[in-house]
Amino acid sequence: MLYVLKFGGSSVADAEKIRRVAGIVTEVYCEGHDVVAVVSAQGDTTDELIAKAEEINPRPSKRELDVLLSTGEQIAAALTAMALEKIGLPVVSLTGRQIGINTNSAYGAAEIKSISEERIKNELDRRRIVIIAGFQGVNKFDDITTLGRGGSDTTAVAVAAALHADKCLIYTDVEGIYTADPRKVQGARKLEEITYDEMLELASLGAQVLHNRSVEMAKRYGICIEVRSTCTGAPGTIVKEVVKPVEEMKISGIAKDGDVARIAVLGVPDEPGMAFKLFRALAKAKINVDIILQSYGKDGTNDISFTVAESDVKDAEEVMENCRELIGFDHLSVNTDVAKVSIVGAGMIRSSGIAAMMFEALYDAKINIHMISTSEIKISVLIDEERADTAVSAIHGKFFGN
Amino acid sequence: MLYVLKFGGSSVADAEKIRRVAGIVTEVYCEGHDVVAVVSAQGDTTDELIAKAEEINPRPSKRELDVLLSTGEQIAAALTAMALEKIGLPVVSLTGRQIGINTNSAYGAAEIKSISEERIKNELDRRRIVIIAGFQGVNKFDDITTLGRGGSDTTAVAVAAALHADKCLIYTDVEGIYTADPRKVQGARKLEEITYDEMLELASLGAQVLHNRSVEMAKRYGICIEVRSTCTGAPGTIVKEVVKPVEEMKISGIAKDGDVARIAVLGVPDEPGMAFKLFRALAKAKINVDIILQSYGKDGTNDISFTVAESDVKDAEEVMENCRELIGFDHLSVNTDVAKVSIVGAGMIRSSGIAAMMFEALYDAKINIHMISTSEIKISVLIDEERADTAVSAIHGKFFGN
């Protein structure tokens, strides 16, 4: 079997942890499998490099920043290879360029266009363990690029796809995907399996275990991902297309996202095209809008509310003010003390009463709902941020028991 | 004009120093010249990376060590480019691989086989300043190599040769090449010019301003080198093929090398082939022998003395003991408390009495000479290490006045 393993920055943070990673890799290799391991930069390396850059130039070009930052993963890859050499295993470390990760030229957030599997295959044919510096590639100008957030996960899935690997194992500091955040919700259960779509909803809802880019790529190429703990190495959660139904599990997980703000545009004239003009302006400013709600306001006007990421609030307010005249609304109301709580489950579409169960849990906990949004596999509600943890626990108790 | 500048690790050690380097580069660029700058890794970066490696594996493969160490120069190159971006100049940093520095596969001490000047020329044609990560290349397997000691100097000279640069400016923490170590010899003078051959003798004699590899390459391709201070930027010392004769200067410089040991093999039978057997054994063990002296010993035997680097003493003793039976010598005597003091000058061959002047200076200072060695452009003597600084001052006084 061919396994692609991925270890994040905290898993290779120091010599001791790198030795642990080498132990995991050794175990898989010695079972007779071919092993490719993708590593991120050690712990704080990236932050240290950014600090060095800022001392010299607070606004360096993204091209030079990529030249700088890509060294972090290269260092981690070499050190991990050295740890395996110490054990006495045949190993070789390779950079993104050496395995032909070709990207577009969006420095700092490049997208992978192709991978040439030749070099890796040659090394594997010689029964070498291949350690790959994640997060990086090279563009058509032969310049170094980095992949941005979730870059090393994306490298791992892309390599797994190029090599037709049997599985992509993402090692992290949690033991898998849980029905809710296990640090906050008593009785949160680890899922054995979850579908790509459920994972995508959970990732975008703030579960933060896997980045959406890597899950999307895994879905596209049918790569089976398993999320495991670097500490225990125990079987974690498998992410794949279809999962075997678990009778009593009506939903797969509950997620909380506190990085959200609600903007209410009050007193919008009841004329055609108002919503279009408003959201076109936001789109032009590259502001992502999540939940949208339109309701009747005073005197025959409409109120349009929507949510954005907290970091986009300032920009969104500016955009709204700039089109106040065009739209002719009355006033704006902004609330950042809100959170989005969502339940996700591929089985939702086949079960009735899921939404009712969620709302009942919130009602029992006396939590007021500001907005509701639904898709085929999720239901999200916007509530006061200070009640969010209580809401997650209440909903979890309703569906899974505490 | 096209200038290749080179800045060592201490010149780019921190943000402040990198800004100074950017200032020097800016000055040359704004005079209308094309500028390529080669940088070493910042101050202690290389040592820090080696320490990281040793914590994980005290004996990593040289291949992985090169993957690791090459990041140091890449970081320095990116940061230097960012400092120039801050000033507002067009700049691009490039790794050894990006400028096509092809080397053999001697990891850790690779030799440059070729450079493809295309990328650099394209960047220069666009009036960009090119910052190059020194010390590194790539072998025919597409793997990263490093050039070993003096590697960044060698990169700079090789780039200057490939581009037919008008001059290669080596910026360092001294103001040029001196007639003797200015920290130790009162009245030591800065040389305006020095020949490649003189520089080669001085470098191998422990002057340590330029590494021999870079001087040899400069001589081969006729690259004019100038050694300058990063601090003052004042005209330094020019290294070239032929220098204009300075009437009163009979020699160019005096150097001291304390890293030397004398091994005396006493009581060697007076038969043919003894010296051959002895030095063949040393050569097989890759031990470099410098000065050799043979003299009559007791009872019709010979005494053979030679000098080696102090780091080779243990190995040399072992080699000697192993061939004690083959050669049949009486006993060994090892002395590490010796130093080699040398005078160098291309004009020596045309002047008579230079050796006599040197010996007279040593006699006046009551310094005993153990061994003497001469070449066309140098005279070396082996003396007690504790008298070496006195010897250098005495000789300097004789030739240059104090």
Quick structural gist:
Two copies of one chain form a homodimer. Chain A contains twelve helices and 18 strands. Chain A is globular, with a radius of gyration of 23 Å.
Give the tags.
homodimer; 402 residues; alpha/beta; 26% strand; globular
Protein architecture, described:
Two copies of one chain form a homodimer. By secondary structure, chain A is an alpha/beta fold. Helix content of chain A is 36%, strand content 26%. The first copy, chain A, is built from twelve helices and 18 strands. Chain A has an eight-stranded mixed beta sheet, sandwiched between helices. The first copy, chain A, has a six-stranded antiparallel beta sheet with strand order 14-15-13-16-18-17. A two-stranded antiparallel sheet of chain A has the order 4-5. In chain A, helix 1 (15-30) packs across helix 3 and helix 11 packs across helix 12 (388-400). The longest helix of chain A is centred in the N-terminal third of the chain and has 26 residues, at 62-87. The mean pLDDT of chain A is 91. The interface between A and B is large, with 37 and 37 residues.
